[in-house]
Specification:
It is built from six helices and two strands; from the N terminus they run H-H-H-H-E-E-H-H.
């Protein structure tokens, strides 16, 4: 049985959700611009995002995680491989099996450039806030994170 929250809490939750979505969009603008310069499609970006957090996946595993058909993912991987963004590594134990991994260039981008792209909008916004506002922002986000079950610092 699903218990409906009181209307006021539901409305507050919708407002917070909308605010968080708007914040995520604002923080992603520099990254989206960098991705656009690289002329990647949304499905290609999705595949790279999945692969970056892994030591490599089989095409079947990647298709499952992406929620896309095997043939679709195979085509995406082929195009990314031609651009030098992913590579297929043959298994030493079984030459019939291969794992798809991101290349060093992609890993370096995620490690070195991604933080540089994500932080400037946030730093710019925080510069505009008074010191007391900054403290309230940090405290409120820590509280929300804790209440959602994440770890708060």
């Amino acid at each position: 049985m699903i218990v409906k929250p009181p209307a006021a809490l539901a409305e507050m939750a919708r407002e917070i959700d909308g605010d968080l979505r708007a914040i995520r969009r604002a923080l992603r603008k520099p990254l989206d611009a960098a991705i656009a310069r690289g002329e990647l499609t949304a499905p290609q970006i999705g595949i790279l995002q999945i692969l970056v957090g892994t030591p490599g996946l089989s095409l079947k595993e990647l298709s499952s995680r992406a929620g896309l058909a095997h043939s679709t993912v195979s085509g995406i991987v082929d195009r990314l491989e031609k651009r030098g963004m992913v590579a297929r590594q043959t298994s030493a134990a079984d030459a019939r099996l291969s794992r798809i991994v991101v290349t060093g260039a992609v890993r370096r981008f995620v490690r070195d450039k991604l933080p540089e792209l994500a932080l400037p909008p946030l730093v710019t916004a925080l510069k505009q806030a008074a010191p007391a506002e900054r403290k309230r922002i940090v405290a409120a986000l820590r509280t929300l994170r804790r209440l959602l079950g994440g770890t708060a610092r």
